[in-house]
Task: structure prediction
Amino acid sequence: MSARNLSERGVAPDLPTADAAATADELYPEEALARALALAGEVTERPRLESTRERTITRRGVMWLGQTCNLRCYFCYFIDRIETTTHPEHPFMTLEKAKKICKTLVDTFGNDAIDIQGGEPTIWPHILDLVRYCREIGLFPTLITNALVLDKPEKCQAYKDAGIGDFLVSVHGIGEVHDRVVQLPGAHVRQMKALRNLREAGIPFRFNCVLSKPVVAQLPQVAELAVRTGARVLNFLTFNPFEDQARGGKRSANNVPMYGEISTQLEKALDILDDAGVEANVRYLPLCMVKERHRKSIYNFQQLPYDHHEWDYASWGWTGLVEQRMKWGEVSPVLQLETLRTPARFRKQIDWILARPRLRSALFKLHNGVARVAAALRSKDTLYRHNARIRAESHCGYIYAAACNECSAKNICDGFHGDYADLFGTSEATPFGGPKLKDPRHYIRTQDKIVDGASA
Result:
């Protein structure tokens, strides 16, 4: 989208950069927080929620309805698909296809919860029908949303009547910071009104916050916002793109913070959340980047399968295929949990095969046959851990620094995302001693995670 078109939409065309002047809300985050709370309101007393330290494989699935959105977050993994109306994944799918995917998640994969994404799922015309259907078939429905549509109380009530489980709200800063990151003036105000509406309607909500450069100064205030508005969970996600952004060149040292820049403010935020008893999760950050007391909150690919609020690798591998992310065509045959490691150097050859229906079908049959044999010979935990390594090494190019070889956590840590290492290198690695750790649950088993309708 051109700068002119962005301007006509009321969107700031300039992406955040390291050289840009800091906004007032970055310089005075406490004042920004006070204005946000005036809009969102505060809980008088946080409810006591059931929690658990049991760590079992998640049964939550995920689906993408189509890459159509009412925002243009500059870090979005799918920004090219959102901007390109001719992309096969851009249009929203039909309700019938969405239902078929959900039914497969229940019947084939045994999922009991689902994260529904768009683009932006609240602007899909059939979303309330799908929420009702999920409840009918035993899927606890969560919408991942920017919450703009929820600034109207009647919308929230409609979701409650339909049986929504909860909302995962994308809070990417406070005040001007959020508006600049999502590239829409006024988005923060609408989001804060939505939080008030959700709380008054009695609908639970959680936060997602991407750790892009502009939000770093506000991380403690984002944590305070979660505590004081009643968010049940706050997830911090490092800015590591996995889709279009990995090829589009929009991610750079100008808008991606180094881990060292994040750590101090992130630890302040985690302390605030700990003190308030709010669950905190940090995605895709090397374990050595936080002090030991906070490693219980670090979830890399080896830890993700044990978070009931994250996605099941088996069903995720299937819904992540293009047939399940586009409007046109039937859903593909079920793909069993991936057991074959595909080295990055063979990615082009695999893509060539996948683009040819007959070869693709033969590859799926071979893959599923190997998967069944592997499943008979290995435990479920072993299969998921193997898949975690494939996702980290083959899909995202994670690498270890030389210093990682001296770290006791190397076997349960993914190391550095390949794109991050290309930007900044791996000199930040700070190995810590002790016995070599083997169980990826070593730290996360000490975390208290809330129990909702999906994880009960």
Remarks:
- The radius of gyration is 21 Å.
- The CA atoms of residues 68 and 145 lie 12 Å apart.
- Strands lie at 51-52, 60-64, 113-117, 140-145, 166-170, 205-211, 233-238, 279-283, 298-299, 449-450.
